[in-house]
Structures are given as structure tokens and as C-alpha cells.
Amino acid sequence: MVAGPAAADAVRRAHAMPNLQVGLHVVAIEGPGITRAFPSDQLGLGIEFARHPHRLATEIRAQFEAFAATGLRLAHADAHKHMHLHPVVGRLMIDIGREFGLRAIRIPAEPPAVMVACGTPQGAGARALHLWTRLLRRQATSAGLFTNDAAFGISWSGHMTSDRLLRLIPHLPSGVSELYFHPAASRDPTLDHLMPDYEHEAELAALLNPDVAAALSHTRITSYGALA
User: Fold this and answer.
1) Can you give the pTM of this predicted structure?
2) DSSP state, residue 158
3) What's the half-sphere exposure (Cβ side, CA atoms, 13 Å) at 53?
4) What does the pLDDT read at residue 76?
5) What does the domain layout of the chain look like in residue ranges?
6) 106-228: CATH number
């Protein structure tokens, strides 16, 4: 989030790790942008973006420009709260992003059958979301962008614990899967306010768990930047 309060610190840390692949997390809902702040009203924003795409285009361009100004290589892009599933947001993120060297984006497509196999029932909403991701995938592939085949961290958002990962890994589908997390070394008032039930510290522990690393040893762990 290039307009986030910790963006400068994140950029400093990223420059200290030149092998780290860094992407732009486009903010179009519930957070600070460059030209405006976005509320949490998903329906209202969806209608606004459909009616006034030029306003959103200005903001998305400003965010890509801010990322470019950091001097970091753009490995991929996605959007906060998966807002790029909105056709207008997705199209603008792709079209504008390509001007800044964008080569890969996240498709938040979590296969319902895999989650059921892991013991997590999937309702009509989850299945409809998975089908809806096909539109974003068509937009991305038509633009020549690389996309992941599956993503995990949606049903268990904020709760990607070691136990759950060890259940998930044997069921990972063929192709490229992204496992995404919200790790933190400790909680603070901002996390308590925005994500009160997230298990940030447990997610960090899962990423550092040697049992998880061993379970993933048969997979090839890489980055969007290396694949795109």
C-alpha cells in the first residue's frame, strides 16, 4: 500500500533485501490512496467505479507512479480486499499497470473442492466467487499477464495457522498456487481495530514452522517475478 503509514519503512526494508520480490497492493477500498481515502462501502464504491472510471484511473495511476518512484522492481500487483475482481478495477489495474512494467497479477481463485477436502465447507457464496474470478483471469490472460492457478488464504483469511497449512499442503492442486498470509511479530492498536480476530502471530509462526517447510519440500517455491 504505497500511501500506507508504514510504506516508507517497507520500502527501506525491501531495498535492504534485493532478492525480495515486491508487488503493488492497489487500494480501492478501505484505506488510504494517493488522491483520496476509500471507505469500506463495497457496494457504493462498485457503483461509483462503474459510473466514473476516470476518477479511479487517476488514483490507480498515482499508486503505480508512487511505486515506481520507490525504485523497486514491480513483481506483481493485486488489490486490497480483492477489489480488482470488479471488472472496472481489474481492467484499469491491468491497463495502467502494463505501462509500468506489470507482468503478473493475483487471481483470488480458491478451489472449493480443495477447501472441502481440508474440512472447510464451502457455501454458495464461495462457489460463486470462484466462478467470478474467471472474468479477471480472462482480462489478465488477454493482456498477456501471468496469473496463478489457485490462491489460498481466502476462507482462512487471517487464520493460516500451522495446523491448517499441514492439512492444506497435501491437497494443493497442480499448477501454481499462491498461499498468502497476514503475519506480524506482535499486535498493535491498528491491527486490533482493523483485524481484531486475525491470528497474525500464529501466521508468522506457521511461516517459520519447520514442519510446514518439510511438508512443502516437494514443491517448487518461487515468486511471481521469477515466473512472469
Assistant:
1) 0.94
2) T
3) 11
4) 96
5) 1-102, 106-228
6) 3.20.20.370
Residue 210 CA to residue 111 CA, distance in Å, equals 26
pLDDT tens by residue, 41-94: 999 999 999 999 999 999 999 999 999 999 999 999 999 999 999 999 999 999
50-58, Cβ contacts within 8 angstroms, sequence gap of 24 or more: 50/88, 53/88, 53/92, 56/28, 56/88, 56/89, 56/92, 57/92, 57/96
Q: Determine the pLDDT at residue 63.
A: 98
Q: How far from 37 is each of 29, 30, 167, 223, CA to CA, in Å? A: 8, 8, 39, 30
SS3 118: coil
C-alpha cell at 172: 494443493
- Please tell me the total number of residues recorded for the chain in this structure: 228
| Beta carbons of 174 and 135 less than 8 angstroms apart | no
Locus of grid cell 512494467? 101
Q: 159 phi and psi, to 5 degrees?
A: -135, 35
